[in-house]
């Protein structure tokens, strides 16, 4: 089953945010939020979190450093004073770079403007330390939320260098961040992979995710895959990724022109991506980067 819109999943996990920008509240005695999202998701969060006590949420997990995964950090700091922001060391280092922070802030403010929510969101441009990470976590680290709820972290590079997956074994819930293609029109209709950092690492990470015992697969974009379909979704994601690699290599073998293959593929990819903030230019850049990497690795 594909749960597209925010809802309570079980007594421990609540899906928050929007269909495009997903966050997850994990509750034991203490609570943790997975997902740094974008600033324009925060008006929805404000409503969804209205019954949650100010001091209850102790941790925020930033799943990677891209602009659409960190824009809500300042909102969470204000809403939950003392919240500790966790991410990989690679995310921490990326977000500490002024150039990255400036770009991320600009993209978030622009998106808030475009959807008419600028007035309801914290402006990020010019804000010092907007995306500061408080603590780096790495492979195998665990946070104990009490009441038997443990949260594990796994490093899954490939989409970016800094991707962090989160697993709640007590619920068989896996949060893979963007280390899998997204669903498009149906749960088993998958978009192209997005492996901008390193294609081989992405495949390796996706294979690892396929080994988890999973009944709840909470994506960063487009909702949650539930039940037996969760594991099947990860299997399809790997197949989709390997098929994509073969197709790219086939096209390149014919034309020997990286830009041409990237343009053609980006056009197709854009038809499958349902995220307003992914522009044609951005899609070309990320597709070209991935294709160059596939060709170089072959
Ligand atoms: Zn990303």
Please tell me about this protein's structure.
With 298 residues, this protein is α/β, with parallel strands linked by helices. The protein has two domains: 235 residues, Metallo-beta-lactamase, Chain A (4-Layer Sandwich), CATH 3.60.15.10; 54 residues, no CATH class. Helices cover 37% and strands 17% of the residues. The protein contains eight helices and 13 strands. The strands form two sheets. A seven-stranded mixed sheet has the order 1-13-12-11-10-9-8. Strands 2-3-4-5-6-7 form a six-stranded mixed sheet. α5 links the parallel β11 and β12. α6 packs antiparallel against α7. The site of zinc ion has 6 residues, from loops.
Low-confidence stretches: none
Assign the structural class, choosing from mainly alpha, mainly beta, alpha/beta, alpha+beta, or little secondary structure: alpha/beta
Which kinds of small molecule does this entry bind, naming each only once?
Answer: zinc ion
CATH-defined superfamily of the largest domain: Ribonuclease Z/Hydroxyacylglutathione hydrolase-like
Order of secondary-structure elements: EEEEHEHEHHEEEEEHEEHHH
CATH architecture type of the largest domain:
4-Layer Sandwich
* Percentage beta strand: 15-25%
* CATH fold field value of the largest domain: Metallo-beta-lactamase, Chain A
Shape: globular
Give the biggest beta sheet. 7 strands, mixed
The CATH class assignment of the largest domain is Alpha Beta
Strand line-up of the largest beta sheet: 1-13-12-11-10-9-8
**What is the helix content?**
25-40%
Task: Give Rg in angstroms.
Answer: 18 Å
Number of domains: 2
Number of strands: 13
Distance from first to last alpha carbon: 36 Å
User: What count of helical segments does DSSP give?
Assistant: 8
Please tell me the overall pLDDT.
Answer: 96
